[in-house]
Amino acid sequence: MPTAEEIIAGIPIWKGRIRIEPLSGGITNRNFLVTDTVQRAVVRLGEDIPVHHVSRSNELAASLAAHAAGISPAVLYHGPGVLILDYIEGRTLAPEDIRDPAVLERIVSLIKTCHRDIPAHLEGPVANFNAFQIIRDYAKTLQEGESRYCDRLRALLNSCKALESAAVPFGRVFGHNDLLAANFLDDGKKFWLIDWDYAGFNTPLFDLGGLASNNDVPEDGERALLETYFDAAIDSALWKRYQAMKVASLLRETMWSMVSEIHSTLDFDYAGYTAENMARFEGAFDEFRQM
Fold first, then answer.
1. What is the spatial distance between Cα 246 and Cα 244, in angstroms, rounded to a whole number?
2. What is the DSSP letter of 128?
């Protein structure tokens, strides 16, 4: 089997000699920065991941549409298990950046562009992202894989059911569905949104709740986030639906990590990630039940 370096070297877009540098942070792909005599590019190596509902053809369609909408880097090349993107010279955001009110306002504008503008540029079949159905499918995968968490699945599915009931009705937009701080880049002039592995049609509340939960946005920031997104005051019904989706995003991330513990071959501490997210989910779900 060829190495990552051999795969990259064989891609027919390079001009002259290339330098390959691994990029840290990927937990569903192997990522590399490649420099040739003309350009710098990010190479993402990764096959479909059926247990996580990740389809590389869907990622490609979302990446192309997001670039056409002006919010993501250009696709330079794609092939089986390979996606190459233009390199954006800039800074990866951190959770503390997201919590800054001025930054958060700009991020909301970027999310609205994602939700509103990308569908006009999509071509071919595109995924739906239903967090609750994914959670139920994760439970089946964990049961079949004899996960060490099997004794907790019934309680987690009961939590899923309660959250789904509280979150309806759902709107429909094209969501990114993985709004970690590391998926935002600042080039000094504008923000970019990258990594479209989980993109698909979803309720906007999942992206908004995921953004808040992933980056520990405080309650006043959450209310500002919602008011900016919806351009209106937030009533108690919307607030509860939002909270339900936020907690669901934590449950989905927790079970994503549980599944990764038994299926991923990448060098990452998934067990530690599961424990971290389980604690956050349990705390958030307890607070939600008291609403």
1. 5
2. B
Give per-residue pLDDT as tens, 117-170: 999 999 988 899 999 999 999 999 999 999 999 999 999 999 999 999 999 988
- CATH number among 1.20.58.480, 3.30.200.20, 1.10.260.40, 3.40.50.150, domain 4-86: 3.30.200.20
Look up the CATH number of domain 91-289.
3.90.1200.10
Retrieve residue 184's tokens: 């935002």
Supply the pLDDT for residue 27.
74
> Residue 218 burial (CB < 10 Å; 0-12/13-18/19+)?
exposed
109-124 pLDDT tens trace: 999 999 999 999 999 8
> Residue 40 has which token pair?
């710098």
Contact 171, 203 (CB under 8 A): yes
**CA distances (Å), 274 to each of 90, 119, 186, 210, 253, in order?**
30, 33, 29, 16, 8
254: nearest Cα among 233, 239, 273, 231:
273
If we measure between CA atoms, which residue out of 2, 1, 12, 8 comes closest to residue 23?
8
Contact 71, 185 (CB under 8 A): no
State percent of the chain over pLDDT 70: 100
